[in-house]
Design a protein that fits this description.
Layout: H1 9-19, H2 22-25, E1 29-36, E2 41-45, H3 52-72, E3 80-85, E4 88-95, E5 100-107, H4 112-131
Antiparallel strand pairs: 1-2, 1-5, 3-4, 4-5
Helix pairs in contact: 1-4
Length: 133
């Protein structure tokens, strides 16, 4: 029997390890989660005021929509998603080779470029951790 990704101890422990350095890369991080493509939260950090399941569900829907737009417009593979608003932004990055997405919420104190860079580095870090035996 296969264990669901969001319940798999390997994904959880390595996800926690990868997320542990995200706040150092981007101090305005309010919340971050690693989620499955189908919207289940695997692991989250920061911001206890957010519902991790709701955030993961919204991130999954946003990711699916962005992937569909890129596909329909023949733009190639969607690399990341950014939702920017008056008081902050959400950055989402896929974890290459795994059915996972990193979604992170930042305040307006961080530039979008720095937030995107931090999210990409964290997703690559998770990929390395998951590839190690």
């Amino acid at each position: 029997m296969t264990i669901a990704t969001h319940l798999n101890k390997k994904y959880i422990s390595r996800g926690e390890l990868a997320l542990s350095g995200l706040k150092d890369l981007a101090p305005s991080l309010s919340y971050a989660t690693i989620l499955t493509e189908d919207g289940f939260s695997v692991v989250s950090v920061e911001g206890s005021e957010l519902d991790s399941n709701r955030f993961a569900s919204m991130a999954s829907s946003t990711q699916a929509l962005a992937d569909a737009v890129a596909r329909e417009l023949k733009l190639g593979d969607n690399e990341f998603v950014i939702v920017a608003a008056e008081h902050g932004h959400v950055v989402q990055v896929r974890v290459d080779g795994h059915p996972l997405v990193l979604a992170a919420l930042f305040t307006d104190k961080e530039t979008i470029g720095k937030s995107l860079s931090a999210a990409r580095r964290t997703a690559r870090r998770l990929n390395v951790f998951l590839s190690a035996h």
